[in-house]
Specification:
Structural class of chain B: alpha+beta
Largest sheet of chain B: 7 strands, mixed
Shape of chain B: elongated
Distance between the termini of chain A: 99 Å
Distance between the termini of chain B: 34 Å
Strand order of the largest sheet of chain A: 3-4-5-6
CATH class of the largest domain in chain B: Alpha Beta
Number of domains of chain B: 3
Order of helices and strands of chain A: HEEHEEHHEEH
Radius of gyration of chain B: 28 Å
Number of helices of chain B: 9
CATH superfamily of the largest domain in chain B: Zn-dependent exopeptidases
Radius of gyration of chain A: 25 Å
Number of strands of chain A: 6
Oligomer: heterodimer
Strand content of chain B: 25-35%
Largest sheet of chain A: 4 strands, mixed
Chain lengths: 197, 486
């Protein structure tokens, strides 16, 4: 006859084994979902839902100025997604036929990363930088437009770094420095200069 | 630096960042310790061949210098190695070698060869004594090599670059060095000496390591080899600068024109003519010492064309023409001026900043050109953040911060002069390099066409008119720029 304490022990062990099996099965499902999400190419999420008023800082080449423009944009709740949507809305202005500050076809914001404390990293695609017109003012208007639009609508950003295709690049198109981290306060002052002719 | 992208990065970075801080801080401490302990005295061997020039670290074991054989020969051909049966079998192209850890006898191409010390095997890396390379490598490579063990320089095949050095009889005398291949040494100066370090070039001594020229200005030079580099030290009794020409085949060492002229003036009647401008020659000028009021820098150049102003016209051509006019106008107003580039050469922002800072001028004026807009745009540095300055050591990226007041004063003065001349002008800050790295007043002058016709950018009359007005604006703040410690 099997002793009672042995039977209880075996039953306990079997229960533990079944519980762990179920847990592992659940974890595996999560890993699969994570793998799918990280291996899929980034897709610009469709802008949908209720819109919010945002201020885009738009560059005007003719006058060489940067001016605020109100826009109603569907903005997600998350800061990260909100930042990306804002910059994509700004690029829509520049890629439009009536653009006041023409960017190269195919220019895109690949990602915006918000990193503590107060750092935002804007990752442009190669077409954005490679096709950008060269010139101090033209490049500076693009930089100030991106930085101002982001910092004005996403609170808490104090520094901004710009990458191209996930890598550091010396300049945007031969002039404006992209190796530095930009202080939002310094770019704010620049935006004031760029606002008035 | 590489930043990966992907949606996985988005999830809860805040908490992950905190968790990651402890190992990150530990990593920084370990990396700092490694850097502090190792880098300055790290030994390495420079290897020169027709395939590649590179360097390999020297490993010290048992007070002897060793070299990792596979890593040393990898850039030269197909290499492989495996350890089996207590032996390390190494294959270079189709040549087999066999080494036994702890033994001094090796077998190459089926023949025994004696090493000067035991062969070592560490984590799959075969280490051979440095002093055995002269006998071992010719057998493995199947050709002659020259190994300077003291200088740790290895020449494979006939790759050496030779040079001649001769002092000309001109006034002032010049030391002309001609090289059999283009060279690009790192140049540094100290009182009475100009040092040229050749780390990438297989430069060899010209017969004797000590060269004497019989010149009072440049009496001698020495050639020495150390830790994988060759160094030529030119001794001079007055400040000298090095000019590169002939596509890097020639280096001319001579006093800057200003210094030479000032020396002559001391024994001649005072001249009523304005002080001369100094050009850095057809290439970058490297100053041993020297004080200039202004440093004018034509942006872009060489491989870097800058903006395409028209189908044929590149920004680099306009900036050079305008910089020459500006130098002329400044010199005409008695301001000694150094032109950073006076030819079509490529310079990095760091090179421009280093040259400017060495020149110790009162103002740096960088010239750009654009087809957009009209007139002139003036830029001072947009400096982000406060750098970490420690005594004499100034943070490179924010070096301009202390001089922004002077820079803005110069920009305001130039803008006022341009407005008086009815030239459209705008003053802005801009994140441009090397502006942020300059330790004196610094200004960018961006020249745009006078009207809608971009071709007017190349008009000598227009360029000279703007250059004269800019120079007049600089003269107005001359005292302010020179005032007080820099």
């Amino acid at each position: 006859m099997i002793p009672r304490h042995l039977m209880i022990g075996v039953a306990f062990m079997v229960t533990i084994a079944l519980g762990m099996g179920a847990y592992v099965w659940r974890i595996r499902g999560r890993v699969d979902r994570t793998l799918v999400s990280t291996t899929m190419p980034p897709v610009a999420p469709p802008a949908a839902g209720p819109t919010e008023q945002a201020t885009l800082y738009v560059a005007y080449d003719d006058a060489g100025v940067l001016r605020p423009r109100s826009a109603h944009i569907p903005l997600p709740a998350g800061r990260q997604e909100r930042a990306e949507e804002l910059l994509r809305a700004l690029l829509d202005v520049y890629l439009d036929k009536t653009s006041p500050h023409v960017l190269a076809p195919g220019s895109e914001i690949r990602d915006v990363y918000l990193v503590d404390p107060g750092l935002a990293v804007i990752d442009l695609n190669a077409a954005f930088a490679n096709g950008h017109r060269s010139g101090v003012l033209i490049e500076e208007l693009t930089l100030a437009s991106l930085v101002q639009t982001l910092s004005a609508n996403v609170p808490g950003i104090t520094r901004i770094k710009i990458l191209v295709d996930g890598k550091e690049r010396d300049t945007l198109a031969g002039h404006v420095d992209l190796t530095s981290f930009y202080d939002v306060s310094a770019v704010n002052q620049l935006a004031v200069q760029l606002a008035g002719q | 630096m590489h930043w990966s992208s992907g949606n996985g990065f988005r999830s809860d970075r805040r908490s992950r960042g905190r968790r990651a801080r402890v190992p990150f801080v530990a990593l920084i401490i370990v990396a700092s310790a490694l850097l502090l302990s190792g880098s300055p005295d790290e030994k390495h061997v420079s290897i020169y061949s027709t395939a590649a020039n590179y360097s390999v670290p020297v490993i010290q074991r048992n007070n002897l210098d060793y070299l990792a054989l596979l890593e040393a020969l990898e850039p030269l051909g197909t290499v492989s190695a495996n350890a089996s049966g207590g032996r390390w079998n190494f294959r270079y192209n189709d040549i087999n070698s066999e080494f036994v850890p702890g033994q001094t006898r090796a077998r190459v191409r089926g023949k025994d060869i004696d090493l000067t010390a035991s062969f070592l095997l560490e984590n799959g890396h075969g280490l051979v004594p440095l002093s055995s390379l002269a006998t071992l490598l010719p057998r493995i490579l199947g050709g002659p090599i020259t190994f300077n063990e003291a200088g740790r320089r290895l020449f494979i095949g006939n790759v050496a670059v030779h040079f001649t050095a001769q002092v000309s009889n001109t006034n002032p005398p010049k030391l002309v060095m001609n090289f059999t291949a283009p060279v690009n040494p790192t140049i540094s100066t100290e009182p009475g000496k100009l040092r040229m370090a050749f780390t990438r070039e297989p430069l060899v001594a010209p017969g004797s390591q000590a060269l004497t020229f019989g010149s009072k200005l440049i009496p001698s030079a020495t050639f020495q080899e150390n830790n994988g580099a060759a160094e030529v030290v030119v001794i001079s009794t007055m400040p000298v600068m090095a000019n590169f020409s002939n596509d890097g085949h020639t280096i001319t060492i001579a006093p800057p024109v200003a210094v030479a002229t000032q020396t002559q003036l001391s024994v001649q009647p005072p001249s009523t003519t304005s002080q001369p401008a100094v050009t850095a020659g057809n290439n970058i000028g490297v100053l041993a010492t020297g004080h200039y009021f202004a440093v004018v820098d034509a942006s872009h150049g060489g491989d870097e064309r800058g903006a395409a102003l028209t189908g044929q016209l590149g920004e680099k051509e306009v900036t050079l023409e305008f910089a020459r006019f500006l130098r002329q106008e400044l010199a005409a107003r008695g301001l000694t001026t150094l032109l950073v580039r006076d030819g079509d050469i490529t310079l990095t922002p760091d090179q421009r900043a280093a040259l400017t800072n060495a020149a110790d001028g009162a103002i740096y004026i960088c010239v750009h050109a654009a087809s957009q807009g009209t007139g002139v745009r003036l830029y001072t540095a947009l400096v982000s953040g406060i750098g970490e300055n420690h005594g004499l050591f100034v943070d490179w990226n924010t070096a301009q911060t202390s001089f922004l007041g002077r820079s803005q004063a110069a920009a305001a003065s130039v803008a006022a002069k341009l407005k008086n001349k009815q030239v459209p002008v705008r003053s802005l800050a801009a994140p441009l390099r090397p502006l942020s790295n300059i330790i004196t007043a610094a200004l960018v002058v961006e020249l745009a066409p006078p009207g809608n016709d971009v071709s007017q950018l190349t008009s000598p009359a227009y360029q000279q008119s703007i250059a004269g007005t800019v120079a007049a604006g600089i003269v107005d703040v001359r005292d302010k720029l020179q005032d007080g410690p820099k």
